[in-house]
Amino acid sequence: MIGSIKGKIILKTNKFLIVETVGVGYKINISPDTLSKLKTRPNGRGLSVGREINENILLWIHTHVREDILDLYGFLNRQELEFFEMLINVSGIGPKGALSILGIASIETMKKAIGTGDTAYLTKISGIGRKTAEKIIIELRDKIVAGKTGASLQGELDALEALRSLGYSQSEAREALKKVLPNTDTNTKIREALKILSGK
């Protein structure tokens, strides 16, 4: 099985990369969150520039084999890969479904919601259905150490609702909140998210 691939990006789309290493181009499926991280990187002077074609990259790989298909799923760090592999072990969640879940809420937030058994949080923030949320909690809760109180999860929900009341869509609000430091109070979350949404 392929565990990681290091090479240069020769094609980048909204759903996959082709990374060339030793003369072979590998098609690697990626999450929207991974794609957004690829768009910028620090350049050593406090600035960010786009991750360009022909730049080298290291991806941690999950190799998904079926009878007639071999698919590769790539992640920028092992934490993302491990959580992805936990998700696909939940009955009814395949690799593409797991990628979608990874793309709409941070891993830390998802783990803490699972650890506290907060079905309402999972359905509201991630957009997954109640039955799926219950399955995820039942099958993964014992594997995850909860590190966030229910009160702080409620704070994130409150921030989401506040942003929606200001006219932002749920997806816009979720994306902005993913970029805010997790251990901040509700008002700070809202202020920082508004800065991100306004492009400041």
Automatic annotation (TrEMBL):
<keyword id="KW-0067">ATP-binding</keyword>
<dbReference type="GO" id="GO:0009378">
    <property type="term" value="F:four-way junction helicase activity"/>
</dbReference>
<dbReference type="GO" id="GO:0005524">
    <property type="term" value="F:ATP binding"/>
</dbReference>
<dbReference type="Pfam" id="PF01330">
    <property type="entry name" value="RuvA_N"/>
</dbReference>
<comment type="function">
    <text>The RuvA-RuvB-RuvC complex processes Holliday junction (HJ) DNA during genetic recombination and DNA repair, while the RuvA-RuvB complex plays an important role in the rescue of blocked DNA replication forks via replication fork reversal (RFR). RuvA specifically binds to HJ cruciform DNA, conferring on it an open structure. The RuvB hexamer acts as an ATP-dependent pump, pulling dsDNA into and through the RuvAB complex. HJ branch migration allows RuvC to scan DNA until it finds its consensus sequence, where it cleaves and resolves the cruciform DNA.</text>
</comment>
<keyword id="KW-0378">Hydrolase</keyword>
<dbReference type="InterPro" id="IPR012340">
    <property type="entry name" value="NA-bd_OB-fold"/>
</dbReference>
<dbReference type="InterPro" id="IPR011114">
    <property type="entry name" value="RuvA_C"/>
</dbReference>
<keyword id="KW-0963">Cytoplasm</keyword>
<dbReference type="GO" id="GO:0048476">
    <property type="term" value="C:Holliday junction resolvase complex"/>
</dbReference>
<dbReference type="InterPro" id="IPR000085">
    <property type="entry name" value="RuvA"/>
</dbReference>
<keyword id="KW-0347">Helicase</keyword>
<dbReference type="GO" id="GO:0006310">
    <property type="term" value="P:DNA recombination"/>
</dbReference>
<keyword id="KW-0233">DNA recombination</keyword>
<protein>
    <recommendedName>
        <fullName>Holliday junction branch migration complex subunit RuvA</fullName>
    </recommendedName>
</protein>
<keyword id="KW-0234">DNA repair</keyword>
<feature type="domain" description="Helix-hairpin-helix DNA-binding motif class 1">
    <location>
        <begin position="85"/>
        <end position="104"/>
    </location>
</feature>
<comment type="similarity">
    <text>Belongs to the RuvA family.</text>
</comment>
<dbReference type="Pfam" id="PF14520">
    <property type="entry name" value="HHH_5"/>
</dbReference>
<keyword id="KW-0547">Nucleotide-binding</keyword>
<comment type="subunit">
    <text>Homotetramer. Forms an RuvA(8)-RuvB(12)-Holliday junction (HJ) complex. HJ DNA is sandwiched between 2 RuvA tetramers; dsDNA enters through RuvA and exits via RuvB. An RuvB hexamer assembles on each DNA strand where it exits the tetramer. Each RuvB hexamer is contacted by two RuvA subunits (via domain III) on 2 adjacent RuvB subunits; this complex drives branch migration. In the full resolvosome a probable DNA-RuvA(4)-RuvB(12)-RuvC(2) complex forms which resolves the HJ.</text>
</comment>
<dbReference type="InterPro" id="IPR010994">
    <property type="entry name" value="RuvA_2-like"/>
</dbReference>
<dbReference type="GO" id="GO:0000400">
    <property type="term" value="F:four-way junction DNA binding"/>
</dbReference>
<keyword id="KW-0227">DNA damage</keyword>
<feature type="region of interest" description="Domain III">
    <location>
        <begin position="158"/>
        <end position="200"/>
    </location>
</feature>
<dbReference type="InterPro" id="IPR036267">
    <property type="entry name" value="RuvA_C_sf"/>
</dbReference>
<dbReference type="InterPro" id="IPR003583">
    <property type="entry name" value="Hlx-hairpin-Hlx_DNA-bd_motif"/>
</dbReference>
<dbReference type="Pfam" id="PF07499">
    <property type="entry name" value="RuvA_C"/>
</dbReference>
<feature type="domain" description="Helix-hairpin-helix DNA-binding motif class 1">
    <location>
        <begin position="120"/>
        <end position="139"/>
    </location>
</feature>
<dbReference type="GO" id="GO:0005737">
    <property type="term" value="C:cytoplasm"/>
</dbReference>
<dbReference type="GO" id="GO:0006281">
    <property type="term" value="P:DNA repair"/>
</dbReference>
<dbReference type="GO" id="GO:0009379">
    <property type="term" value="C:Holliday junction helicase complex"/>
</dbReference>
<keyword id="KW-0238">DNA-binding</keyword>
<dbReference type="InterPro" id="IPR013849">
    <property type="entry name" value="DNA_helicase_Holl-junc_RuvA_I"/>
</dbReference>
